[in-house]
């Protein structure tokens, strides 16, 4: 029944899902860094930085990810020659897809982190100042520990959405799961079986993440 | 200015803020200049490339028909997904395990799968087993993918909307002798739908954005794929991307503003129970809060 799977070795089924995992992990880390920076700008006391953060989030969130990913290939790479140091088409697509995914996902990471900071009641900071803690102590000992714990749940949602969003990279020819599925489903007779195999693959990728991080966020939630 | 992170600035902090602002502004200006210079070097700033967008032909031949297809697919998907989502959302709240469990499985399953996979599968299935023209098939495939995914997201919205109502509502309904179906139909659902309206409108943003996938991967002639034909006709890749991105931003900004206006209005209104489900509630809608199963738990706002 699964004979046809062995006909595909560029990429293989596991190779394609491995590519999905690589895209998810690398752009997850990238968007965590960029998103945290954006969130820092959005809550900073400097109005210009706040304005930039707000503008970035509102613009990027409203553009479809597909437009961004296609733009990295047809715009950045083809017109401006931004190849991210790659000569191979596959490698170029991979790096450009990560660039697009990071730029897009960071906006959502930023919002998640900001909402986490907003869950900390103002009284916490006021109490910290009242007992004479300095600004960095207040941030380090009082605010951020509470904010991080509130942020796990929303960030888990962003990570799961990112896992699913990596399929958009197929649009610029990155050989990941959706790309392989598109090739397979057009050629083979077992349409239902192929659909089930790929659906199962994504359930396997997203379900444990959701379960683990959901459990963690419930366990670590600040009880108020 | 009251923020949990910093005090109202004193004279020194004010000076420091001005200093940081100046440096940040310089960095931004450098970035803008860099982009401008790169565009200039590749001759993407020439007026001939941007001029088509000031004339009617580019709009009537390419962009407006594309936008119409985007909106048609999004509207169809929403109209079909909403009742389907309501059915599954209510089924998940059923007292009977044999109704609750399968509904939960279906919802969690379709939320765990990327929309693109659903679209590709629907496209191939229609191609093999249905007798449709190419345009019909593409539209149906896009709508099918969007409906399956968004119905399961909306099922969670409906469930959260009903759970967000004060407990007294169903208790009062029980007290005056309404049956379970009547309680749901006459008391809970009408209030829940009102409370859900902002979240439903923001889900429209997600649907509009996802239509672009159908354009690239299965050739549906929506806005992003008409951008390709437009850029081929006028030879202006960058200009066309900028214009199409602006169209998406404006469209989604209108939807988002409408959602928050709706939310504010509903919160003010005296008739409601005060339960309103906003877009932000949906983003934070994690299973821990709604007492559901720990599944793929995404509010689905990306």
UniProtKB/TrEMBL annotation, chain A:
* Annotated InterPro entries: AA_ABC_transptr_permease_3TM (IPR010065), ArtM/GltK/GlnP/TcyL/YhdX-like (IPR043429), MetI-like (IPR000515), MetI-like_sf (IPR035906)
Q: Which residue ranges does UniProt annotate as crossing the membrane?
A: 16-41, 62-82, 94-113, 191-216
Would the keyword Transmembrane turn up in this protein's UniProt record? yes
Q: Which GO terms describe its cellular component?
A: ATP-binding cassette (ABC) transporter complex
Checking Pfam families in the record gives: BPD_transp_1
- What's a BP term from Gene Ontology annotated to this protein? amino acid transport
| Localization per Swiss-Prot or TrEMBL | Cell membrane
Which GO terms of the molecular function aspect are on file? transmembrane transporter activity
How does it sit in the bilayer? Multi-pass membrane protein
Family under the similarity heading: Belongs to the binding-protein-dependent transport system permease family. HisMQ subfamily.
UniProt xrefs under PANTHER family: AMINO-ACID ABC TRANSPORTER PERMEASE PROTEIN YHDX-RELATED, MEMBRANE COMPONENT OF AMINO ACID ABC TRANSPORTER
The protein in question is named Amino acid ABC transporter permease
Q: Which organism is it from?
A: Streptomyces cyaneochromogenes
Lineage of origin: Bacteria, Bacillati, Actinomycetota, Actinomycetes, Kitasatosporales
TrEMBL record, chain B:
Location of the protein in the cell: Cell membrane
Keywords in alphabetical order, please: Cell membrane, Membrane, Transmembrane, Transmembrane helix, Transport
Annotated Gene Ontology cellular component terms: ATP-binding cassette (ABC) transporter complex
GO terms under biological process: amino acid transport
Matching Pfam families, A to Z? BPD_transp_1
Q: Which GO terms describe its molecular function?
A: transmembrane transporter activity
User: Which residue ranges does the record assign to the ABC transmembrane type-1 domain?
Assistant: 67-255
Keyword Ribonucleoprotein present in the record's keywords: the answer is no
Spans through the membrane: 18-36, 71-91, 103-122, 142-165, 186-208, 238-262
Keyword Phosphoprotein, does the record have it? no
Membrane topology summary: Multi-pass membrane protein
Family to which this protein belongs: Belongs to the binding-protein-dependent transport system permease family.
Name listed for the protein in its UniProt record: Amino acid ABC transporter permease
Q: Which organism is the protein's source?
A: Streptomyces cyaneochromogenes
């Amino acid at each position: 029944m699964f004979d046809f799977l062995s006909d595909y070795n560029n990429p293989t089924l596991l190779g394609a899902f491995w590519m999905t995992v690589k895209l998810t992990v690398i752009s997850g880390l990238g968007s965590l860094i960029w998103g945290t920076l954006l969130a820092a700008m959005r809550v900073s006391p400097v109005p210009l930085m706040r304005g930039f953060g707000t503008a970035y989030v509102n613009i990027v969130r409203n553009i479809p990810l597909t437009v961004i990913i296609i733009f990295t290939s047809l715009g950045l790479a083809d017109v401006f020659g931004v190849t991210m140091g790659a000569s191979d088409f596959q490698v170029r697509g991979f790096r450009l897809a990560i660039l697009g995914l990071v730029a897009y996902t960071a906006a959502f990471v930023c919002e998640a982190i900001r909402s986490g900071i907003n869950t900390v009641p103002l009284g916490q900071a006021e109490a910290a100042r009242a007992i004479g803690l300095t600004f960095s102590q207040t941030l380090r000992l009082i605010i951020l520990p509470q904010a991080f714990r509130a942020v796990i749940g929303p960030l888990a949602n962003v990570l799961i959405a990112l896992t699913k969003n990596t399929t958009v990279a197929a649009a610029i020819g990155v050989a990941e799961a959706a790309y392989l599925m598109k090739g397979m489903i057009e050629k083979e007779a077992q349409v239902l079986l192929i659909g089930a195999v790929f659906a199962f693959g994504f359930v396997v990728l997203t379900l444990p993440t959701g379960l683990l991080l959901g459990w963690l966020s419930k366990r670590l939630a600040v009880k108020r | 200015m009251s923020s949990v992170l910093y005090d109202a600035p004193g004279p020194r902090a004010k000076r420091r803020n001005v200093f940081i602002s100046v440096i940040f502004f310089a960095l931004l200006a450098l970035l803008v200049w860099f982009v401008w210079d790169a565009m200039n070097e590749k001759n993407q700033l020439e007026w001939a490339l941007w001029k088509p967008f000031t004339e009617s032909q580019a709009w009537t031949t390419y962009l407006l028909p594309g936008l119409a297809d985007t909106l048609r697919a999004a509207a169809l998907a929403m109209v079909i997904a909403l009742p389907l989502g309501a059915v599954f959302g209510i089924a998940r709240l059923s007292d009977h395990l044999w109704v609750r469990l399968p509904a939960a499985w279906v919802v969690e399953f379709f939320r765990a799968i990327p929309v693109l996979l659903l679209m590709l599968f629907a496209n191939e299935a229609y191609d093999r087993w249905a007798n449709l023209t190419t345009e019909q098939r593409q539209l149906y495939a896009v709508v099918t993918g969007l409906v399956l995914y968004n119905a399961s997201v909306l099922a969670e919205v409906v469930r959260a909307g009903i759970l967000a109502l004060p407990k007294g509502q169903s208790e009062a309904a029980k007290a005056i002798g309404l049956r379970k179906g009547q309680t749901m139909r006459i008391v809970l659902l009408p209030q829940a739908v009102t409370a859900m309206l902002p979240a439903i409108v923001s889900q429209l943003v997600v649907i509009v954005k996802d239509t672009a996938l159908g354009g690239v991967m299965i050739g549906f002639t929506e806005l992003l794929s008409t951008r390709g034909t437009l850029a081929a006709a006028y030879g202006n890749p960058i200009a066309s991307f900028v214009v199409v991105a602006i169209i998406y931003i404006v469209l989604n900004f209108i939807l988002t503003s409408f959602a928050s206006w709706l939310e504010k209005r509903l919160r003010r209104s005296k008739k409601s129970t005060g339960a309103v489900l906003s877009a932000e509630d949906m983003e934070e809608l994690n299973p821990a809060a709604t007492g559901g199963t720990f599944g793929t738990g995404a509010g689905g706002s990306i």
